[in-house]
Amino acid sequence: MLQPPPPSLLDKYHGDDVLPLYTGRVCVTGGEARHGRASGIARSDDGRLDVHLRLPEALGGPGDGTNPEQLLAASYAACFHGALTLLAARSGVALGDASVEAAVTFARDPVDGRFLLSADIRVSLPGVDRRLAAELVRHTERICPYAKMFRQGIRHAVTLIDEAAPPQQHGQS
């Protein structure tokens, strides 16, 4: 039977360096159109995730697969829900049928003319006193790592990895 992690996961860490707990790895290949968003395949290193990526109809695609915005929304909602239930358990609050809905929007950026993402979370806590529910959601927003990422940004690195292909020289094809 599946069980949630223990509320002790919320205990504060005191250390000088980041303490990695888990790293998820996914590789996206371009698929038929050689384009990750249009025809990509996303696979995790453990094989648990294996999805076809497609442009949604709103962006001119067929909409017959998932897309990065849906995957990010699912990740954000799952993390927020998990943090919320841990916080409620630690506080002795029974949540019942709590649900978290995330919306991730792919949009044009008026600042640089390129693109940006925005995210919204909607939390439903039926049967929980409104004031208590608001307090739980406020505290969850502080501890959820995805909410923190959206609020503060995220450390990231982009690295070109060496492959076996020989380098092309100018003037050669």
TrEMBL record:
A Pfam family assignment: OsmC
InterPro entries: KH_dom-like_a/b, OHR, OsmC/Ohr_fam, OsmC/Ohrsf
Biological process terms in GO annotation: response to oxidative stress
PANTHER family for the chain: ORGANIC HYDROPEROXIDE RESISTANCE PROTEIN-LIKE (PTHR33797:SF2)
Similarity section: Belongs to the OsmC/Ohr family.
Protein name listed in UniProt: Ohr subfamily peroxiredoxin
